[in-house]
Amino acid sequence: MNDQQNGRDAVVSVRGLTKRYREQTVLAGIDLDIAAGETYALLGPNGAGKSTTIEILEGIRRPDSGEVRVLGEQPLSAPRSWRSRIGVVAQGTGDLGPYTARELVAHFGALYPRPRGTDEVLELVGLTEHAGKRATKLSGGQQRRLDVALGIVGRPELLFLDEPTTGFDPEARRRFWDMLSALTGEGAAILLTTHYLDEAAHLADRVGVLSGGRIVAEAPPGELGGPQARVPVVSWRDATGVLREQRTERPARLVAELCGAADAAGAPGGEPAELEVRRPSLEQIYLGLIERTADGSAADAGEGGGRSAGAGRSAASADPAAERAAILTDENGTSR
User: Fold this and answer.
1) CATH class of the domain defined by 4-225+297-327
2) Which of 125, 127, 126 shows the shortest CA–CA distance to 102?
3) How large is the greatest C-alpha to C-alpha distance in the chain, in angstroms?
4) Sign (positive/negative) of CA torsion 169, 58, 180, 148?
5) Separation between Cα atoms, residue 147 and residue 93, nearest integer Å
6) What is the C-alpha to C-alpha distance for residues 322 and 134, in angstroms, rounded to an integer?
């Protein structure tokens, strides 16, 4: 893939990225490009290296080898101004102190050069009615929305979303999806990890499947796995009562043949019992890809099975909120 997607500049450009923890190879040469305005969903089982990849792109973990550019900079040596151009929504809420949701959004917004309005952000994540409530008194789902609010208030050019809708009810998830569509419409790029395959199918322009330390497949959701992975399956119960199924690229022809034979045999309704045509879902295709590379999906040593609440966020802090403040504070401790 080129450094430009459909003529747009690459916000993320990765070549040959590798990372090992002791004797375990977690990333074995990843290439990745994400364009401005694009949503990229990185999928993979727990321990596949998703968290390691994102932490390297965020500049809080050092790769062993490879070329990494994010917004034109190498994350580990990027200037502090670069930090204000990215947004991070980690998996867990850290210690946010005795502050209300409104106070926290306003505080973090003040750390950025052109933040969104506090009320706008609270409305986007559905926290307007709870804005005056202390963060520690919010429900788990509401705290998750607050995480998202703190990640988007700075109007980032690149947004990292790690399981962002965990704890959201269906209506809140849909509202969140609409919000992300608005962000990409403004030119923001999004790197998303999620275990909800319907979320990836709905949001992502492209999906990458990480397994065995490599991206084993990458395509728009409707094309993942290639044509052979999407061949329809026709199933029916034959005259002896045996349930049969057949993969075919011409399901209509097979159905016509089956119905003709059933009608000639006097079957009720003129068709075989339990006749059904199915196309593999994104989840089925994804699971098939993972199964074919199962020998390379050993646990991520050092990741603790993924990003638990606040785990592995930086060497200085296990608190996502504290980290956000720290990376936007200058050398003498003065917030910008």
Assistant:
1) alpha beta
2) 127
3) 87
4) positive
5) 6
6) 17
Are 177 and 259 in contact by the 8 Å Cβ rule? The answer is no
**Global confidence as pTM:** 0.74
Residue 131 · residue 137 · CB < 8 Å: no
- Residue ranges per structural domain of the chain: 4-225+297-327, 232-279
Tokens of 199: 């979320």
In 3D space, the residue among 156, 157, 154, 180 whose CA is nearest the CA of residue 168 turns out to be 180
- 89-146 pLDDT tens trace: 887 667 778 999 999 999 999 999 999 999 999 998 889 999 999 999 998 888 888 9
- Closest Cα partner for 151 from 141, 143, 159? 159
Whether the CB-CB separation of 318 and 272 falls below 8 Å is answered with no
Q: What is the pLDDT of residues 72-88, one digit of tens each?
A: 999 999 998 999 999 99
What six digits make up the tokens of 101? 């949701």
Q: Which residues pair with 190 in a beta bridge?
A: 39, 159
CB atoms within 10 A of CB 2: 10
